Amino acid sequence: MSVLTTQGEHIHVWELKAHIDGCHSWESFYTCRCGAKRSVGGERSGDANDFSSVFWMTDSDCERCQDLLSGAQPKSWDEISCA
Ligand SMILES: [Zn+2]
Ligand SMILES: [Zn+2]
Prior knowledge:
This protein has one domain (15-81). The model has no long low-confidence stretch (mean pLDDT 83). Strands 1-2-3-4 form a 4-stranded antiparallel sheet, with no helix packed on it. The chain is elongated and about 50 Å long. Helices cover 16% and strands 33% of the residues. It is built from 2 helices and 4 strands, in the order E-E-E-H-H-E. Bound molecules: zinc ion (2 copies). One zinc ion binds next to loops.
């Protein structure tokens, strides 16, 4: 059916459904027409040269922000869950 399906192998076509920015992390949610879901996200580095960190990490009440700002290793993920 799909022009993007070749030799029986389905190639996901990700459509952005939502993007969430938290104080020290961000996450984007995608879906494919086959029903699979994908979550891509990461934590901000806390690097003062990183514009997004300067912009978002202003909540001094957040422990994780403080950790990252003092050099903790930011996590990132890219997860696909099939229907
Ligand atoms: Zn798919
Ligand atoms: Zn935070």
